[in-house]
TrEMBL record, chain A:
<dbReference type="Pfam" id="PF10245">
    <property type="entry name" value="MRP-S22"/>
</dbReference>
<dbReference type="GO" id="GO:0003735">
    <property type="term" value="F:structural constituent of ribosome"/>
</dbReference>
<dbReference type="InterPro" id="IPR019374">
    <property type="entry name" value="Ribosomal_mS22"/>
</dbReference>
<protein>
    <submittedName>
        <fullName>RT22 protein</fullName>
    </submittedName>
</protein>
<dbReference type="GO" id="GO:0005763">
    <property type="term" value="C:mitochondrial small ribosomal subunit"/>
</dbReference>
UniProtKB/TrEMBL annotation, chain B:
<dbReference type="GO" id="GO:0005743">
    <property type="term" value="C:mitochondrial inner membrane"/>
</dbReference>
<dbReference type="GO" id="GO:0003735">
    <property type="term" value="F:structural constituent of ribosome"/>
</dbReference>
<protein>
    <recommendedName>
        <fullName>Small ribosomal subunit protein bS16m</fullName>
    </recommendedName>
</protein>
<keyword id="KW-0496">Mitochondrion</keyword>
<dbReference type="InterPro" id="IPR000307">
    <property type="entry name" value="Ribosomal_bS16"/>
</dbReference>
<feature type="region of interest" description="Disordered">
    <location>
        <begin position="103"/>
        <end position="127"/>
    </location>
</feature>
<comment type="similarity">
    <text>Belongs to the bacterial ribosomal protein bS16 family.</text>
</comment>
<dbReference type="GO" id="GO:0005763">
    <property type="term" value="C:mitochondrial small ribosomal subunit"/>
</dbReference>
<dbReference type="Pfam" id="PF00886">
    <property type="entry name" value="Ribosomal_S16"/>
</dbReference>
Length: 333, 127
């Protein structure tokens, strides 16, 4: 399984760094050194990868600005000239672009396991553990000191779950609960997926969990697996989760369903970007080498990919044929 | 007393617990106040809180604003004994000697309670 790493984050633009509140670069220096020593594998955060994923996400204004349940207000009508309408559309596109910024894809965090002091004398005096949180206002939450004094006298650093709970108690964030809702348990996710509400679940998940927590990763992977099983790719198109889903499918080489869906909807540029990304992620595969030698573009690239790499060759050939016939008839008429 | 905190005449700044909450439900605020003020009266600054009852996860939650605590200690504030013990448990200060003494006394009392139970039990079980 390819590493969905934050290793290439040295190349991340300053805007995205600030938005995702990633820790300072010096903490990642060790990882960056390792990454350079091994093959420079493209990470989720590279500029090239992000532009390709963003193009594939699409920009359907009607879906992005779909009515959200808010307070009831009478509708606003404005009288505009053509130029003003264009200006308003342009501003709407800018806003939609900020709404489509992809949430980060990080590795699962290492569990904290650090003992600060052991005082055997205190054994048996207390019945419950004490959790001490540092409430100084100007420290980033990642660097906050949260320690636990156990009843057996051991003073240790708090686990990630304890940390998240304490930080939510003292510095509450909107949309986040102290105890995660039961919706995110595996049994209940199935019900929500049957109602086609993947996007809502993923939005709630982003609000509730940190991007590198195991729960966040588990919910996202469950959602992507369900979408891939039922071929419901269009649910996430034009939302900010599309890039993450494509990245997940690419690293596990399950791109056939998505390819068929794109060809059926006549999104050939998206299909070619998908295959370009595939070659960037897996440069050692045969179709990547053939594509580099022949410098293929467009539909030839897809055909080479289909012949060498895909499992569902027949379906994709059929879809391509249907597309070509449709092109021929439309150009002829 | 310290030369720095010369408020009104007399009294000194202490960092202590102020009790709040309701019947059978205590809640402490860790507070820097003039020593001559009422326990729950007007304070200079709140530096944290302590919930003495364990929550659903079996933990007693305490928050400490260490940055401001360091400021007041640097200005020459004094600490009350429970505040010192709490900070010793937290690891900010070394463990208070009375915490250690209290633990040892508790252990000795428990041993003494077990021994007389053992001795008459042996005495009654023997014959």
């Amino acid at each position: 399984m390819a590493a969905l790493g934050a290793r290439g984050s040295a190349a991340l633009p300053a805007r995205l760094r600030a938005l995702w509140a990633l820790p300072a670069r010096r903490a990642l220096a060790a990882d960056a050194g390792e990454g350079k020593a091994a093959q420079p594998k493209p990470a989720f955060t590279d500029e090239a990868v992000q532009t390709l994923l963003y193009k594939m996400t699409g920009l359907d204004l009607h879906k992005v600005f779909r009515p959200v349940k808010k307070g009831l207000k009478p509708p606003h009508y404005k009288l505009m000239t053509e130029a003003q309408l264009e200006e308003a559309t342009r501003k709407a596109i800018e806003e939609a672009k900020t709404k489509l910024i992809m949430p980060p894809v990080l590795n699962e965090r290492e569990p904290i396991d650090d003992v600060l002091a052991e005082d055997k004398v205190l054994e048996g005096t207390e019945t419950a553990k004490y959790v001490f949180t540092d409430l100084s206002y100007s420290i980033p939450h990642r660097e906050r000191f949260i320690v636990v004094r156990e009843p057996n006298g051991v003073l240790r650093k708090a686990t990630w779950e304890e940390r998240d709970r304490m930080i939510q108690i003292f510095f509450p964030k909107e949309g986040r609960r102290v105890i995660p809702p039961t919706l995110f348990k595996d049994e209940n996710l199935g019900t929500v997926f049957q109602q086609d509400r993947h996007e809502d679940v993923l939005n709630m998940c982003i609000a509730q969990f940190e991007p590198d927590s195991p729960d966040y990763i588990r919910v996202h992977h469950r959602a992507y697996e369900d979408i891939e099983k039922h071929a419901k790719y269009d649910l996430l198109r034009s939302t900010r989760h599309f890039g993450g889903m494509v990245w997940y499918l690419l690293s596990r080489k399950k791109t056939d369903g998505l390819l068929i869906d794109m060809i059926n909807r006549d999104l050939l540029e998206d299909a070619t970007s998908l295959i370009t990304l595939y070659h960037m992620l897996h440069p050692e595969c045969q179709s990547a080498k053939e594509a580099k030698e022949g410098k293929l573009q467009g539909i030839d690239l897809i055909k080479v990919f289909v012949k060498t790499e895909s499992q569902r060759e027949g379906y994709i050939q059929l879809a391509l044929q249907a597309y070509e016939e449709a092109m021929a008839t439309s150009s002829a008429s | 007393g310290s030369r720095l905190l010369r408020g009104s005449r007399g009294g000194h700044v202490v960092i202590r617990f102020a009790l709040g909450g309701c019947t059978n439900r205590p809640f402490f605020r860790i507070v820097a106040a003039n020593s001559r003020r009422a326990r729950d009266g007007k304070y200079l600054e709140q530096l944290g809180c302590l919930d003495p009852l364990p929550n659903a996860h079996g933990e007693k939650v305490a928050g400490l604003n260490l940055e401001r605590l360091r400021y007041w200690l640097g200005c020459g504030a004094q600490l009350s004994r429970p505040a010192e013990k709490l900070l010793g448990l937290a690891g900010f200060l070394p463990l208070h000697p009375m915490t250690v003494t209290g633990a040892e006394r508790l252990r000795r009392r428990r041993q003494r309670e077990q021994q007389p139970e053992a001795a008459p039990a042996d005495g009654s079980a023997e014959p």
